[in-house]
Amino acid sequence: MQKQKAYLDCLPRQEAQELWITKLTEVGYFNNLPREKVAVTEALGRVTASVIFAKQSVPHYNGAAMDGIALYAPDSFGAQETAPKRLQLLQPDETFQPGGCYVVDTGDLLPTGTNAVIMIEDVHWVDDQAEVITAATPWQHVRIIGEDIVAKEVVLPEHHLIAPVDMAALLAAGIEEIEVVKRPRVAIIPTGDEIVASRQDLKPGKILDVNGPMLAAAVTQWGGDPVRREIVKDQRAAIEEAILASLKDCDMVVVNAGTSAGREDYTAPILSELGQVLVHGVAIKPGKPVILAICQDKPVIGLPGYPVSAMLTADLFVRSVVLARQKLPQPEQSQVEAFLSRQVPSTIGLEEYLRLSIGSVEGRLVAAPLGRGAGLLSSLTKAQGLLRIDPSSAGIAAGASVPVTFLRSSKPENTILAVGSHDPALELLGFYMRRFKPELSLSFANVGSLGGIMAIRNREAHLAGIHLLDEATGRYNVPYVQKYLSQRKVHLVHFAMRQQGLLVLPGNPKKIYSLEDLLRQDKLTGQKITYVNRQRGTGTRMLLDYQLKKAGIDSSQIVGYEKEVGTHMAVAASVASGTADTGLGLEAAAQALGLDFIPVTDIHQGTGEQYDLLLNFSDHDKVMELILHILKSPDFRRDVEAMGGYDLSKAGMIIEL
C-alpha cells in the first residue's frame, strides 16, 4: 500500500467520512466477513451470517387451539339451538368412532379421525355425551402443521439482527445453533506519559484513563468486541509496537491521544510508515486532530485525548465502521426543532457540535447549551441533545429555531430546565424530585441570577435560582423580579438563607480573614493574594462588588478579579488545587472539598444571603406542587442543612410580588 507523510490538513467532516468508508470498501474490509457458530440461546444481538432455513414445521403436528372437544366436523352439521347434536365422549385411548368426540386442552395433539374443535364454553354435557348447538367447520380452532412456519422455508434472512422473538422462532423451527457474523475486535490503545490506570496512581500532573473504558463501552454498544490495551508511554517505538501487535489479532485499532502535530504526537508519523494516512485533521469542533488510516488492510484511527473530542470522533468515525463490519445499518437519529435559550458564537470554517439540555417550556421545546470545553465530561453525562452548527455560520442568535438531534430516550416534557444561579442544593432538589416522580429530570444551565431572570422572561426555563441584592432597598430578588418580569405571571419561592464567604486552604496558610486581605502581599512569597471570581451577572459577583464598594476596595487592584468560573464548586476546586488563594463561595462548597471558610454573610447573625426560586408554572401545576412539597419536607431541609451554611426554616414560602 502506498505510504504518505502524515500532515495536519483539515477536511470537511462529510468528505472525510466518505473517503474513509470508500477506501475501506476498496480493500475489501466489509466483504467475506469472518463467522462463528453460537447457540441460539446466546445469539441475542448477533447478526446472521447467512439465510437460515427451518428444520421442522411450526407447529409440527395438528393441535388444538382451544380448550374444548375434538370431533369430526361433519358429525356436527345441522346442529342448532332447536335441534342440538349429541356426540359420544370417548376416552383418550379409545379409537375414534363416527359421532364420537374427545376432551382436549389447548396445545394437545388432535386425535386421529378428528378435524375440528368446539370451545368448551359452547358444549353442554348430558351424562357422557356432549351436546352442541352450532355446527363446526373443518379445521376450526385447530393449529395445523406448518401453519406458522413450513420446514425448509426461510426463518431469518442474511445479516439480520437477532431479537428475542427471533430466538423463539429459531428454536421452534428446530434450530439450536446458527452461524453469525463474528464481532469485530477493536483494540483500544491509550497513550500518554500523563495517563494512569487507577485512582491510586493519580496525582497533580497525572490524568486518569477514562477514555479507555468509555470507548470500550461504546464499541460494545455498537456490537463490537473491545480489547483494551495497557497504557503506552509517549515513546515512538512503544506506540508502534502496540499498534503492530493489535493489528495481528484485532480487526480495527483505535489509538487515543497523540494525534496532533506536537513534539510527542507520534501517531500520525507511525501510521504513515505502517500504511496510508487518509486524513489527518477534520474541520470539526471539538475533535479536529483526528487521524484516519489503513494499515494491513485494516482501519486504524487516532482519536484526540480530551473525552468530549474522543467520544464525538468515535461516534462520527468508529461507529460507522463497526456497524458496517457487521452488515448493520447506520441508525437514524430523530431530530426536532427547538428554540435556543442563548446566543452561541461559532468559528467559521469549523463544523461545531454543541451539547444541549432540552425541555418543554410553555408548550415549546427549549434547548439550553451546556459547557463547550473538549474536556468537560459533565457535558457528556448531562446532554440530552446535540446541535450541529454549519461551518459557514459565525454563530446562532438566542431564540433561533434550530434542528436538534436527540441523544437520550428521555422525553423533553419530563425535563425541568433550571437556568440561573448555581447552588449545590438544587441538585439535591433534583434527586428528591426523581424519588417522587422517577420520570422527571432536573437539568441545569448555570448562567447566573440575571441570566436566570432573562430565561424566565423569554420563556426558556421552568425555574431559576436567584440571589440578587438591591443596594437601594437592601432587599433580595423582589426588586429585580418586579423590574424585569412585571409583564409575566411567575412565582417567587424562598429556598434558603445561605452563608457566603472566602474559601481558603485548610489551616488558612495565607492568613486571609477579610476582603481587605485581597490587596496585601503574601509574607512568604512576596506576591499578592490571588483571587478567583464568579462570572458577571451572578449574585455572588454582585455580592462581592457590593462588599468591595462598602469597604472602599478598588477591584482592579485584586489579582485574579478578572478570572471567572461558572459554579461555587469550581471556585472551591480552584482554591483546593492552588490555582487561586481564595474566592467567594458557599460554605457547602468549602465543606465538600475540605476547605476552610471565612464568612462574609452569616445566617447566624441575621446577615445571610437570600436564595430564592423563580418558578415558571401555572398556579396548580403538579410539578410546582411537588417542588413546594419537597421544600417544606423535614427530610429535604435536614439534608440540605447538613451540607453546611444553609437555613431552610422558611423554605417553600411564597414571596409576595
TrEMBL record:
<dbReference type="GO" id="GO:0005829">
    <property type="term" value="C:cytosol"/>
</dbReference>
<comment type="function">
    <text>Catalyzes the insertion of molybdate into adenylated molybdopterin with the concomitant release of AMP.</text>
</comment>
<keyword id="KW-0500">Molybdenum</keyword>
<comment type="function">
    <text>May be involved in the biosynthesis of molybdopterin.</text>
</comment>
<protein>
    <recommendedName>
        <fullName>Molybdopterin molybdenumtransferase</fullName>
        <ecNumber>2.10.1.1</ecNumber>
    </recommendedName>
</protein>
<dbReference type="GO" id="GO:0046872">
    <property type="term" value="F:metal ion binding"/>
</dbReference>
<dbReference type="InterPro" id="IPR038987">
    <property type="entry name" value="MoeA-like"/>
</dbReference>
<dbReference type="InterPro" id="IPR008284">
    <property type="entry name" value="MoCF_biosynth_CS"/>
</dbReference>
<dbReference type="InterPro" id="IPR036135">
    <property type="entry name" value="MoeA_linker/N_sf"/>
</dbReference>
<dbReference type="Pfam" id="PF03453">
    <property type="entry name" value="MoeA_N"/>
</dbReference>
<comment type="pathway">
    <text>Cofactor biosynthesis; molybdopterin biosynthesis.</text>
</comment>
<dbReference type="GO" id="GO:0006777">
    <property type="term" value="P:Mo-molybdopterin cofactor biosynthetic process"/>
</dbReference>
<keyword id="KW-0808">Transferase</keyword>
<keyword id="KW-0501">Molybdenum cofactor biosynthesis</keyword>
<dbReference type="InterPro" id="IPR005111">
    <property type="entry name" value="MoeA_C_domain_IV"/>
</dbReference>
<keyword id="KW-0460">Magnesium</keyword>
<dbReference type="Pfam" id="PF00994">
    <property type="entry name" value="MoCF_biosynth"/>
</dbReference>
<dbReference type="InterPro" id="IPR036688">
    <property type="entry name" value="MoeA_C_domain_IV_sf"/>
</dbReference>
<keyword id="KW-0479">Metal-binding</keyword>
<comment type="similarity">
    <text>Belongs to the MoeA family.</text>
</comment>
<dbReference type="InterPro" id="IPR005110">
    <property type="entry name" value="MoeA_linker/N"/>
</dbReference>
<dbReference type="Pfam" id="PF03454">
    <property type="entry name" value="MoeA_C"/>
</dbReference>
<dbReference type="Pfam" id="PF12727">
    <property type="entry name" value="PBP_like"/>
</dbReference>
<dbReference type="InterPro" id="IPR036425">
    <property type="entry name" value="MoaB/Mog-like_dom_sf"/>
</dbReference>
<dbReference type="GO" id="GO:0061599">
    <property type="term" value="F:molybdopterin molybdotransferase activity"/>
</dbReference>
<dbReference type="InterPro" id="IPR001453">
    <property type="entry name" value="MoaB/Mog_dom"/>
</dbReference>
<feature type="domain" description="MoaB/Mog">
    <location>
        <begin position="187"/>
        <end position="324"/>
    </location>
</feature>
<dbReference type="InterPro" id="IPR024370">
    <property type="entry name" value="PBP_domain"/>
</dbReference>
